[in-house]
Design goal:
Length: about 80
């Protein structure tokens, strides 16, 4: 059985901490929007410029990562 668990909520409420704890127990990968945004920022990419809406690129990246992990059977 493949599963994808998504945590949403307000900033600073502990979503990442809870997600990491659940991932350890279930032995499944974790992907975080903030982590991806930090990498993009360090590389000089700013998603707030041009036609790209804030955060949209990170959601696209998260979706691609999740789809690939599920295709590989990494959510079992």
């Amino acid at each position: 059985m493949l599963r994808l668990i998504v945590f949403t909520g307000l900033p600073g409420t502990g979503k990442s901490s809870v997600a990491e704890g659940v991932a350890r127990q279930l032995q499944i990968p974790v992907f975080g929007k903030d982590w991806l945004e930090a990498v993009l920022s360090r590389s000089g990419f700013e998603p707030n410029t041009g036609n790209i809406q804030p955060g949209s690129i990170t959601y696209d990246l998260l979706t691609a990562l999740a789809k690939r992990q599920l295709a590989l059977g990494q959510g079992e």
